[in-house]
Structures are given as C-alpha cells and as structure tokens.
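tokens incoming
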C-alpha cells in the first residue's frame, strides 16, 4: 500500500513539472514567432559555452539602389575612363598664410573674349569658402609635370584639413611646367541647378549656408600664363586616369 501511494505521488509531481515547463516555454515560442513576423530572425551559433541564440535584424526594404544612385555610379564608372590633368590651386590668405588643394576638374572653356577656365570644389572646403568670400583675390594654378615629387605633392594637397608645410608650396614651381594666374569672375552652387534651370535663374552662390555635401563651380579669368621650364612643349603632364596617376607621352 505504501509503495502504491508513493508511486502515485511521484506521477503527480512529474505531471506538474511537465505542465510548468510547458507554461514557461510557451511565452518564449510566442515571442520568437512575433520576432519572426517583425523581420527579426533567430540564429544559433556554437560557442565555448554551447549553443547560443543570437538575434539578427533583417530589413524589410529592398537593397536595390535608387535610380539616382545607379545613374551616379554609371556616370562615375564612365568618367574614370577619361584622363584629367592634375593641378594644384594655391591662394594667399589675408593673414599671409598660403592655402592650396589638388584639382582634377580644371578645364579650359574659352579663349575669346578672354581666356577662361572652370574648376569645381566640393564642400566643406576652406578654399572654396575663401574664394566665395573673396572672389577678387587672385589665385595660382600649377600644372604639374609627371614626376615622383609631383605625385607626392598632389597626394599631400589632396588631404583635407592637413597642415601643408611651407616647403611644399616652395617646391611647386620646380614640379610644374607652367602656372596660371587667375581670378574668379562667376560662381555657381551646383545644388541650385536642376533640369528646369534657365538663364533667368539666380546663379550667384556667395552664401555659405546649406553647402555641405554640394559643390561650387568657379569660372575664372586667366590673367597670365607663365611657362616654368625651357622646354614646356616637351613636358609630360601629370594626369589622373582610373584612380591612378599617369601621363601622356608627347608626339615626336
């Protein structure tokens, strides 16, 4: 009789324990189902202490790039197949210090009625801000030749917010085959341009606000062109092609 009573009590304890375990597990399964519905999946990874469940979020948005981004990428890939002259623009600030930046956007746009070039600077840019504030201050563009020292200078002047030593400015003439003395005559904030742009729109972009992430196009008059070597026509210019420095071999 005593054994029967003991076995009966053990079966009741085991049944209660099993029921309690089911009750405790039910909210967890329900929670995991909710996580799965909301875009959160569970993943088991084996660790030093055994199997551990980790949560990894999955976005409901498609990873397909937007048409604008696709157009920009396609344009960028095509433009990399073209070669661009590497130049360094320098300007003397009011406090006597010099500031400069590497350009690959310099382009000759007119000879008449006056020689003109265009260049663009991306914001934030101390140089662009200064040219917008002081458009009548002249600046110099150095046309670099193909030489290891010129490549070092182009790399140095392309680093944002870097302190460029005075010796680097002094060596620009030795690393260039010519220089252009220029002055800004017009500037355009490219963020203001759109497909419906017309000649009556306001082109002046001398305000500094809301320029971060945009670019400013400068139109400058060439006041003086100065050869810096005796055989300028035989020099190999420093070019930028497909994210690397190169040159163009002169014709015999």
């Amino acid at each position: 009789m005593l054994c029967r009573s003991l076995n009966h009590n053990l079966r009741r304890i085991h049944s209660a324990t099993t029921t309690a375990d089911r009750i405790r597990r039910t909210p967890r399964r329900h929670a995991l189902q909710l996580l799965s519905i909301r875009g959160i999946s569970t993943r088991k990874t084996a660790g030093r202490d055994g199997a551990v469940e980790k949560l990894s979020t999955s976005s409901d948005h498609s990873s397909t790039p937007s048409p604008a981004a696709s157009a920009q990428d396609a344009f960028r890939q095509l433009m990399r197949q073209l070669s661009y002259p590497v130049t360094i623009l320098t300007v003397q600030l009011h406090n006597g210090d010099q500031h400069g930046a590497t350009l690959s956007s310099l382009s000759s746009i007119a000879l008449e009625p006056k020689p003109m070039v265009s260049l663009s600077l991306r914001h934030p840019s101390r140089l662009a801000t200064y040219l917008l504030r002081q458009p009548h201050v002249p600046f110099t563009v150095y046309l670099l030749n193909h030489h290891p020292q010129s490549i070092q200078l182009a790399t140095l002047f392309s680093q944002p917010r870097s302190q460029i030593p005075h010796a680097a400015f002094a060596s620009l003439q030795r690393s260039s085959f010519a220089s252009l003395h220029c002055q800004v005559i017009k500037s355009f904030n490219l963020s203001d341009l759109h497909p419906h742009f017309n000649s009556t729109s306001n082109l002046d972009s001398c305000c500094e606000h809301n320029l971060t992430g945009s670019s400013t196009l400068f139109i400058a008059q060439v006041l003086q062109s100065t050869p810096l070597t005796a055989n300028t026509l035989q020099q190999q210019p420093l070019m930028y092609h497909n994210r690397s420095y190169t040159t163009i071999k002169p014709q015999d």
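note: The chain has two domains: 1-40, 84-193+202-247.
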